[in-house]
Amino acid sequence: MRVFFDASVIIAALLSPSGGSSQLLKYVKLGKITGITSQTVIEEILEEDKFSRIKKSKREIEQFIAESRLIVRKPISAGEIEPYQGLVDIEDAHLIAGANLTRCRYLVTLDKKHLLRPDVQKKFLPLKIISPGQLLEELV
Length: 140
Known about the structure:
Order of helices and strands: EHHEHHHEHHEHEH
CATH architecture: 3-Layer(aba) Sandwich
Strand order of the largest sheet: 3-2-1-4-5
Largest sheet: 5 strands, parallel
CATH superfamily: 5'-nuclease
Distance between the termini: 13 Å
Number of strands: 5
Helix content: 40-55%
Number of helices: 9
Radius of gyration: 14 Å
Protein backbone atom coordinates (compact mmCIF):
# COMPACT_ATOMS: atom_id res chain seq x y z
CA MET A 1 0.00 0.00 0.00
CA ARG A 2 1.54 3.29 -1.14
CA VAL A 3 0.72 6.33 1.00
CA PHE A 4 1.73 9.94 0.35
CA PHE A 5 2.34 11.95 3.53
CA ASP A 6 1.43 15.62 3.91
CA ALA A 7 3.57 17.90 6.09
CA SER A 8 0.74 18.15 8.64
CA VAL A 9 0.96 14.40 9.36
CA ILE A 10 4.75 14.40 9.70
CA ILE A 11 4.59 17.45 12.00
CA ALA A 12 1.88 15.79 14.11
CA ALA A 13 4.10 12.70 14.44
CA LEU A 14 7.00 14.89 15.57
CA LEU A 15 4.78 16.57 18.18
CA SER A 16 2.92 13.51 19.48
CA PRO A 17 4.76 10.18 19.60
CA SER A 18 1.57 8.34 20.62
CA GLY A 19 -0.90 9.80 18.07
CA GLY A 20 -2.31 8.36 14.87
CA SER A 21 0.25 10.11 12.68
CA SER A 22 3.08 8.50 14.67
CA GLN A 23 1.37 5.13 14.40
CA LEU A 24 1.31 5.45 10.60
CA LEU A 25 5.02 6.26 10.52
CA LYS A 26 5.65 3.17 12.69
CA TYR A 27 3.84 1.14 10.01
CA VAL A 28 6.18 2.67 7.42
CA LYS A 29 9.21 1.75 9.53
CA LEU A 30 7.94 -1.82 9.88
CA GLY A 31 7.35 -2.09 6.13
CA LYS A 32 3.57 -2.59 6.51
CA ILE A 33 2.93 0.41 4.24
CA THR A 34 5.14 2.27 1.78
CA GLY A 35 5.34 5.88 2.97
CA ILE A 36 6.24 8.50 0.40
CA THR A 37 6.59 12.25 0.56
CA SER A 38 8.43 14.86 -1.50
CA GLN A 39 11.26 17.27 -0.97
CA THR A 40 8.60 19.98 -1.40
CA VAL A 41 6.83 18.64 1.71
CA ILE A 42 10.12 18.46 3.65
CA GLU A 43 10.89 22.07 2.74
CA GLU A 44 7.40 23.03 3.97
CA ILE A 45 8.12 21.37 7.34
CA LEU A 46 11.40 23.29 7.62
CA GLU A 47 9.78 26.69 6.89
CA GLU A 48 10.41 29.08 9.77
CA ASP A 49 6.79 29.37 11.00
CA LYS A 50 6.24 25.61 11.18
CA PHE A 51 9.77 24.82 12.26
CA SER A 52 9.57 27.13 15.29
CA ARG A 53 6.38 25.38 16.54
CA ILE A 54 8.01 21.95 16.42
CA LYS A 55 10.72 22.96 18.92
CA LYS A 56 13.32 20.64 17.42
CA SER A 57 16.44 21.52 15.47
CA LYS A 58 16.51 21.15 11.69
CA ARG A 59 18.99 18.33 12.21
CA GLU A 60 16.60 16.52 14.58
CA ILE A 61 13.73 16.91 12.11
CA GLU A 62 15.85 15.65 9.21
CA GLN A 63 17.03 12.71 11.33
CA PHE A 64 13.42 11.89 12.31
CA ILE A 65 12.41 11.83 8.64
CA ALA A 66 15.42 9.70 7.66
CA GLU A 67 14.70 7.22 10.47
CA SER A 68 11.02 7.05 9.51
CA ARG A 69 12.00 5.27 6.28
CA LEU A 70 9.78 7.58 4.23
CA ILE A 71 10.76 7.64 0.57
CA VAL A 72 11.42 11.27 -0.36
CA ARG A 73 10.76 12.17 -3.99
CA LYS A 74 12.49 15.13 -5.65
CA PRO A 75 10.67 18.49 -5.41
CA ILE A 76 7.39 18.80 -7.30
CA SER A 77 7.91 21.17 -10.22
CA ALA A 78 5.57 23.94 -11.36
CA GLY A 79 4.86 21.94 -14.51
CA GLU A 80 3.84 18.91 -12.46
CA ILE A 81 1.49 21.06 -10.34
CA GLU A 82 -0.12 22.81 -13.32
CA PRO A 83 -2.79 20.15 -14.09
CA TYR A 84 -4.21 20.57 -10.57
CA GLN A 85 -4.39 24.36 -10.49
CA GLY A 86 -7.94 25.56 -10.01
CA LEU A 87 -9.05 22.15 -8.74
CA VAL A 88 -7.61 22.53 -5.25
CA ASP A 89 -6.07 25.31 -3.15
CA ILE A 90 -2.83 26.30 -4.89
CA GLU A 91 -0.82 25.67 -1.71
CA ASP A 92 -1.98 22.04 -1.73
CA ALA A 93 -1.74 21.23 -5.43
CA HIS A 94 1.78 19.83 -4.96
CA LEU A 95 0.33 17.14 -2.65
CA ILE A 96 -2.15 15.86 -5.22
CA ALA A 97 0.56 15.99 -7.88
CA GLY A 98 3.04 14.19 -5.61
CA ALA A 99 0.59 11.46 -4.67
CA ASN A 100 -0.35 10.83 -8.31
CA LEU A 101 3.22 11.03 -9.63
CA THR A 102 4.37 8.45 -7.08
CA ARG A 103 1.38 6.20 -7.83
CA CYS A 104 0.06 6.37 -4.28
CA ARG A 105 -3.38 5.03 -3.47
CA TYR A 106 -3.73 7.33 -0.46
CA LEU A 107 -2.89 10.91 0.47
CA VAL A 108 -2.89 11.20 4.24
CA THR A 109 -3.41 14.69 5.64
CA LEU A 110 -4.84 16.63 8.58
CA ASP A 111 -5.95 19.54 6.37
CA LYS A 112 -9.72 19.68 6.96
CA LYS A 113 -10.08 23.13 5.42
CA HIS A 114 -8.68 22.35 1.96
CA LEU A 115 -8.30 18.60 1.43
CA LEU A 116 -10.49 16.53 3.74
CA ARG A 117 -13.69 17.86 2.18
CA PRO A 118 -16.03 15.58 0.21
CA ASP A 119 -16.07 17.90 -2.83
CA VAL A 120 -12.24 17.86 -3.03
CA GLN A 121 -11.98 14.15 -2.27
CA LYS A 122 -14.33 13.28 -5.17
CA LYS A 123 -12.31 15.31 -7.70
CA PHE A 124 -9.23 13.14 -7.41
CA LEU A 125 -10.60 9.60 -7.26
CA PRO A 126 -9.28 6.91 -7.34
CA LEU A 127 -6.77 8.68 -5.03
CA LYS A 128 -8.19 8.53 -1.51
CA ILE A 129 -7.57 11.68 0.53
CA ILE A 130 -7.99 10.67 4.17
CA SER A 131 -6.92 11.46 7.72
CA PRO A 132 -4.43 9.34 9.68
CA GLY A 133 -7.31 7.95 11.78
CA GLN A 134 -9.27 6.91 8.69
CA LEU A 135 -6.21 5.16 7.23
CA LEU A 136 -5.55 3.37 10.52
CA GLU A 137 -9.16 2.09 10.44
CA GLU A 138 -8.60 0.74 6.93
CA LEU A 139 -5.40 -1.00 8.03
CA VAL A 140 -6.97 -2.92 10.91
